[in-house]
Amino acid sequence: xxxxxxxxxxxxxxxxxxxxxxxxxxxxxxxxxxxxxxxxxxxxxxxxxxxxxxxxxxxxxxxxxxxxxxxxxxxxxxxxxxxxxxxxxxxxxxxxxxxxxxxxxxxxxxxxxxxxxxxxxxxxxxxxxxxxxxxxxxxxxxxxxxxxxxxxxxxxxxxxxxxxxxxxxxxxxxxxxxxxxxxxxxxxxxxxxxxxxxxxxxxxxxxxxxxxxxxxxxxxxxxxxxxxxxxxxxxxxxxxxxxxxxxxxxxxxxxxxxxxxxxxxxxxxxxxxxxxxxxxxxxxxxxxxxxxxxxxxxxxxxxxxxxxxxxxxxxxxxxxxxxxxxxxxxxxxxxxxxxxxxxxxxxxxxxxxxxxxxxxxxxxxxxxxxxxxxxxxxxxxxxxxxxxxxxxxxxxxxxxxxxxxxxxxxxxxxxxxxxxxxxxxxxxxxxxxxxxxxxxxxxxxxxxxxxxxxxxxxxxxxxxxxxxxxxxxxxxxxxxxxxxxxxxxxxxxxxxxxxxxxxxxxxxxxxxxxxxxxxxxxxxxxxxxxxxxxxxxxxxxxxxxxxxxxxxxxxxx
Length: 557
Prior knowledge:
The protein is an all-alpha fold and 557 residues long. It is built from 18 helices and 4 strands. A two-stranded antiparallel sheet has the order 1-2. A two-stranded antiparallel ribbon has the order 3-4. The longest helix is centred in the C-terminal third of the chain and has 36 residues, at 518-553. The two termini are 43 Å apart.
């Protein structure tokens, strides 16, 4: 399905006619008229970036205000108080940046209005903003001798109306059919079989789950996220939700190929992403099915049989099992989604390293909606630069010469991403207050802290768990990391688009390195792996790697 969806999005952002135009075009025109937008007026990369940042600042402030005032606002049948300042800032930064990191329990903190007008709304527009960035970068390579890369407001509205809302309407109806609640009812009080009181939370759940998966947002209505039976009740919903994580990210390479006039270029990026994803699934599944070898020494049988699943089932839903849990863990961290149907904190050391490894690749393996493709294009620029060094030629990508400016911006992208992970992690591990938030000492506790900052910098939002992040230190620091992780990397990417859009096309010659074949796919995948490994191997060694060695030696676990 990624191919037809990718080609459809190419038509949408090129302004070509689609089957939804009769319904959506009048709505689009009304929005432009109300907001004073001139969609035909194109922007330079600087103007495009300023529009993005201005929109995000207003979005952050509005969500902060909604949370603080939710007690006085309607659709709050539980009477929840306003969210305290540190948590409100963290959540506002989280949902504006498409991170959806949640340092709170949704069903006991957020009113229905906050869930809908605050969180679900930002699920749509943050994903639409990511799509807009990807389209702007594609225009940078598809146009020649220009100064403009499109209009941010046009791209934002089109992404929301033509792509996200139609798919989510259908997806929401399917989720309701499968048993996901969608109502405004007060929580139901019941008595359990044992005679104790229980409050069953519900609300406008299905509509938020649809966009949280499709928009690679990941923030759930409930604290247990997609392990909760109201968010993910059946085998069909589990399949559709993990499918929705990838569909837009997988479609965008085909949008890229169509818009640059060479579909094989899109297939090359798609193939590199697919191979990296497949490797992550295989390793994570193997590690979790293998289990903990120390259990055998005390007589516990971890072999799969008709009576038991075998392997490491700690922290996993029995109804999903190891394979569906490992598949989801790899997908959610490859795609910058962050939703979970199992607790990553309970994975084996190598099984837990896989989602951490995915985060440290920069979430370019399909990645967040739009941002994954943009990040992979940065890696492609680095790849052709290395290939150019091998053959002694000025590197080229899609007919554009890659020169010093593009390389400096690409390295700035990589360095900013590494800095916003490693520097705050170092600060946290020497801060006594921060260390008091972890549930486990030693390398596993270090992994919990490293994963939190990695997830926020990569705008993923999943957690290793075991870390109490709802403190003033973590709320403020992680909120800042999310903002820098999102916009600190977006600005260099847009600057690259603004640089290459001005360049004239360079004719293909005998020395041109082809970027649409198997050799480029292999080299691109290798560059992604090497950059991630060189940057983060030392931190892996302090966490999951040393934990694995200790487990195998029998000194830990």
